[in-house]
Amino acid sequence: MRMSIRDHLDDLAIAITNASDLDRYGPIGRQRCLEDARFHLQYLATALEARSPELFLDYVGWTKVVLAKRNIPERDLLENLRTTARVLHDHPDAVAYLEKAIEQLPSMSDDVPSALDPRAPLWPVASEYLTALLRGSRRDAQQLVLDAIDAGASLRDVYRHVFEPVQQEIGRLWQLNQVSVAQEHFCTAATQHVMTQLYGRIFTGAERSERRAVAMCVGGELHEVGLRIITDLLELEGWQTWYLGASVPPAAAVQLCVDQRADVLLVSATLPPHIASVAEVIRLFRARPELAAAKVIVGGRAFRNAAGVWLTIGADGYASNVDECLALLR
């Protein structure tokens, strides 16, 4: 019986590490190779389960950038992929995905375009807001937003053209090794703080309706700001929302949908290995007859480069950004 990749991640990662030429890297290099092998296998298993080679190719392209910006040569990634293919020789589908990645790796870009567009509304505010965050000034960042609103910018535009692209840009800067994990976490926490300061304006300015949405990130998922942006903007449009944040137990979230008679459940996942958790949420959601008329909308980077995966796990819709999600819900 063929060994399951997901069920034997650790054994396979050890086999890949043992088959790699790591003498020049020492014990630390060996440990990092083991960790990398496990990550590669997680993403490969997810892509195979979703029948989406694009998912694995996207991951390899992302990894190429991360490694290049940390002075790790492309040949190391290439050799790792080749070694993985040799270890998984009795998994023809996995080998096919790996061979496709090996073939396309040289032509994959080692850069990522900025998420901040000078042609976008409020671009000067977004640019200055990012600068304030990167120098560690939450107070200046908040004041920039308040000044923009006082000057006539709408809350909706601040969320769409400042918060959303700046968060994406911070993620890009981490990928390019231009900010640390600590800086990334500070910037995210600061933006959440600024959003909290705007709540009073959101909840007092909207005419209430009976539309109800529950929003959650699946277990292990910590990238929650995008979903929070969406629920705040839904509140601006009169929706009643229950924003649950990160790492929510699926059964608890589904029960809340039942208790609050939700019209829609919004589920976000940034990392492709979390797609299986999204599928489990949807399975539990569909099992409740009280939610027969309700919908499930998924989003997040995990689905962005995997056409149709959202359909295979039973979602009713997919949105790649805030505007698409709001349009879909309307």
Structural notes for this entry:
This protein is α/β, with parallel strands linked by helices. The chain folds into three domains: 6-107; 123-199, Methyltransferase, Methionine Synthase (B12-binding Domains), Chain A, domain 1; 208-329, Rossmann fold. Helices cover 60% and strands 7% of the residues. It contains 16 helices and five strands. It has helices at residues 9-18, 26-50, 53-68, 74-87, 92-104, 123-134, 138-150, 155-175, 181-197, 199-205, 225-236, 250-259, 275-286, 301-304, 309-312, 322-329, and strands at 212-217, 240-243, 264-268, 295-299, 317-319. Strands 2-1-3-4-5 form a five-stranded parallel β-sheet, sandwiched between helices. Helix 8 runs antiparallel to helix 11 (225-236).
Which structural traits does this protein have?
Methyltransferase, Methionine Synthase (B12-binding Domains), Chain A, domain 1; Rossmann fold; 60% helix; 5 strands; single chain; 330 residues; five-stranded parallel β-sheet; 16 helices; alpha/beta; 3 domains; globular
